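Consider the tokenized backbone below.
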């Protein structure tokens, strides 16, 4: 099936990224250092020595959905991604909600990243009192959002060059972490040297189903973000091929990164419940903080800088897909036309980018003023939005290509079996997460007599339903909701043929 019909596109800067640039942005969006800081300890608490296999199992639905993204992108390389594909497969209502899921995830995680950036920035100075100063941290976080919004507004080329540096620094620190941990294990100076055990990768060794599901759901979060490279498909050299390859390559690199760091940390610190042990609940919030002095000595501040860089880097790359998603929605009449404004010189979705930065800042400040606990619950609920729109993408792939599934073994596997398996896994993750979050003991708050995380997570998606209905009432929305501006058969607004593109900033490596 070939969907693509070249047009003038939406005005974005075509041919800006090659394979290398796409992978860099995809990796940066996941914030690998911060993701490990935020989840490794909790995964170990949930499943102990089975942490490595938990990361592997969580990788599977991500990989399966990455194949769905690749196949849909080959046919419909539109920066609206889930919104566009969901609309073409299931109609305007499902497509609109898919786009909203992307926006919600981006807004919530930006607030989290801004807070982490503020805390870790000020933890570099003084005795730690500055990093506990809420107004100071909040103002710093908003400043980071503002700077990265400006970088995103200025263009993908500037953003890619910045991400090359920031991502390289993150991986240098992770490499030093692994080497130092293994070095001390083998020379016997590790605090609790624990020999590698192949049983760590035994998927049948989980002792409790609840612990298994908790660990996998936690691990899903650290893979999220790789789809940013798909949202930049219209700005990529050869948009039908490179973004899909970049998505799959990004997920594989993340798997190797997370499993490698986890194994090294377990061999170095062990699973003990005291001291620097990974099973110590006091270390769960930030395992790296507990290990940094032993591994890095007087250079422990390097890990703090790495987490700061990771959060700031992901702040910029998180803005990109949301801004392009709302640009696409406006282009197809699913949002007011103003969201479709493209800067004439920078060729970026200028209005959508600025709106994203402003809304994320207001959300962050608002949640902080109301209660830091509610802000934390909104972050815990992030998995609902992620599973929601990833699952829509998987189902959309199967349904969109349903007439082609049995034309070849390749189509059956990559357009049918794997995307469906990924979507079903994520649907289960969504339902299981919602059930767990409903409990009043889940998270930090109780709202309306039930878990605050459930109220915030499901409520955020429900707000999308309200906004969709409100837009439906405006005359400008009719072409979209009547299926005229975007349906299965309408050509998408994508750039001209890739052969006409100029060389990308990284050489268009393919």
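A designed sequence for it:
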């Amino acid at each position: 099936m070939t969907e693509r019909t070249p047009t003038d596109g939406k005005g974005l800067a075509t041919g800006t990224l090659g394979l290398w640039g796409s992978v860099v942005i995809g990796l940066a969006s996941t914030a690998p250092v911060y993701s490990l800081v935020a989840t490794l300890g909790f995964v170990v608490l949930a499943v102990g020595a089975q942490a490595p296999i938990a990361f592997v199992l969580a990788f599977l639905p991500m990989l399966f959905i990455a194949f769905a993204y690749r196949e849909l992108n080959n046919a419909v390389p539109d920066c609206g991604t889930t919104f566009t594909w969901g609309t073409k497969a299931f109609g305007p209502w499902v497509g609109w909600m898919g786009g909203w899921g992307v926006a919600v995830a981006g807004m919530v995680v930006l607030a989290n990243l801004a807070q982490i950036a503020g805390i870790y920035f000020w933890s570099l100075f003084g005795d730690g009192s500055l990093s506990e100063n809420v107004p100071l941290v909040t103002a710093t976080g908003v400043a980071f959002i503002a700077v990265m919004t400006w970088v995103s507004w200025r263009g993908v080329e500037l953003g890619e060059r910045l991400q090359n540096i920031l991502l390289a620094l993150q991986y240098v620190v992770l490499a030093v972490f692994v080497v130092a941990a293994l070095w001390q294990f083998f020379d016997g100076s590790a605090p609790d040297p624990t020999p590698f055990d192949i049983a760590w990768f035994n998927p049948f060794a989980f002792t409790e189903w609840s612990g298994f599901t908790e660990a996998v759901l936690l691990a899903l979060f650290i893979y999220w973000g790789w789809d940013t490279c798909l949202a930049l498909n219209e700005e990529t050299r050869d948009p039908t091929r490179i973004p899909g390859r970049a998505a799959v390559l990004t997920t594989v690199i993340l798997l190797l990164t997370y499993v490698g760091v986890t194994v090294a940390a377990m061999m170095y610190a062990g699973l003990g419940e005291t001291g620097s042990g990974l099973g110590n609940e006091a270390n769960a919030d930030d395992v790296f903080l507990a290990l940094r002095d032993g591994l890095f000595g007087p250079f422990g501040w390097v890990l703090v800088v790495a987490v700061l860089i990771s959060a700031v880097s992901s702040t910029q790359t998180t803005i990109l897909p949301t801004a392009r998603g709302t640009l696409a929605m406006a282009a197809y009449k699913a949002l007011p036309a103003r969201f479709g404004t493209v800067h004439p010189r920078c060729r970026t979705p200028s209005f959508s980018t600025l709106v994203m930065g402003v809304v994320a800042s207001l959300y962050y400040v608002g949640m902080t003023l109301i209660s830091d606990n509610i802000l934390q619950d909104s972050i815990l609920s992030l998995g609902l939005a992620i599973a929601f729109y990833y699952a829509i993408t998987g189902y959309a792939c199967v349904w969109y290509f349903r007439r082609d599934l049995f034309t070849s073994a390749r189509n059956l596997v990559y357009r049918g079996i794997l995307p469906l398996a990924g979507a079903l896994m994520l649907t289960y993750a969504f339902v299981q997460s919602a059930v767990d979050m409903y409990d009043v003991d889940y998270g930090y708050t109780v709202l309306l007599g039930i878990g605050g995380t459930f109220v915030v997570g499901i409520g955020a998606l429900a707000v999308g339903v309200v906004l969709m209905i409100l837009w439906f009432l405006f005359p400008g929305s009719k072409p979209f909701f009547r299926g005229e501006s975007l349906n299965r058969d309408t050509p998408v607004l994508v750039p001209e043929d890739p052969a006409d593109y100029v060389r990308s900033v990284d050489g268009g490596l393919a």
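The beta strands are 446-447, 450-451.
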